[in-house]
Amino acid sequence: MNFSWRKAPVTTFIIAACVITFVLMTLAGGSTDTRVLLSFGANNGTLVRAGQYWRLLAAGFLHIGFSHLLINCLTLYFIGFYDEALLGHWRVAVIFLISTIYGNLLSIVTSPNIVGAGASTGIFGLFGAFIMLGIIFRDNPALRAVGRQFIILVVFNLIVDVFMPGVDLAGHLGGLLAGFLTASVIGAPRVGKIGLIKRFLSGIILVIIIGLAARMGLQ
């Protein structure tokens, strides 16, 4: 695939926002400083429950250390460009935003005192969207093959998450599920049609899981 920011402006914007925010955090005292993270909008159950709901989205553009930023931006570069080419610009934006919010919401359900940050919740949502394409359009051999590769990659990452301290497993799982369901709801007209019943059921499930997570995480 020929990568160009003109072909994937949403992905480019997200990467640029992450890099700019990282630079500002570094100038403010360091991206690993808890006070700096919280001041820029890191996810935290206590503050979110106090009414700072914007953190559920803002945390997706913050990163803890340069290696965290680099890995997420490189991953986003590839999966974002693929998804944007197949799904379109606004659909990728919607998937990334909903996956980020739900992933961070699920994080404070399982870890109420977490100080979390990173684009990985949204990135896993984009993986979930592509996996959806590979499953729904399994008659397309190219999508099916790449979808299987992404499933293997996601499973490997989740296994690593289990054994690595400090990794937000709940956020990754939440982003993955939200991305899969959101992509099913909004469809992929560039690839083909998704049945109305499948889209409707995906929407119902998406609303239910978001509602349950909000009820448990925001009380």
What do these coordinates show?
- With 219 residues, the chain is mostly helical.
- The chain has one domain: Rhomboid-like (Rhomboid-like fold).
- It has ten helices and no strands.
- It starts with 8 loop residues before the first helix and ends with a helix.
In short:
The chain has 219 residues and is mostly helical.
Layout of helices and strands, plus pairs?
Blueprint (H helix, E strand, L loop, with lengths): L8 H20 L5 H7 L4 H5 L5 H4 L7 H22 L1 H22 L9 H17 L4 H23 L5 H18 L9 H22 L2
Helix pairs in contact: 1-5, 5-6, 5-7, 6-7, 6-9, 6-10, 7-8, 7-9, 9-10
The number of distinct helices, counting runs of at least 4 residues, comes to 10
Compute the gyration radius: what is it?
A: 17 Å
Helix content: over 70%
Which band does the percent of strand residues land in? under 5%
* Overall pLDDT confidence: 89
Low-confidence stretches: none
Q: What's the CATH architecture?
A: Up-down Bundle
CATH class: Mainly Alpha
What is the overall silhouette? globular
CATH fold descriptor: Rhomboid-like fold
Name the structural class. Answer: mainly alpha
Largest sheet: none
Q: What's the CATH H-level superfamily name?
A: Rhomboid-like
Domain count: the total is: 1
Order of helices and strands: HHHHHHHHHH
Determine the N-to-C terminus distance.
46 Å
The count of β-strands is 0
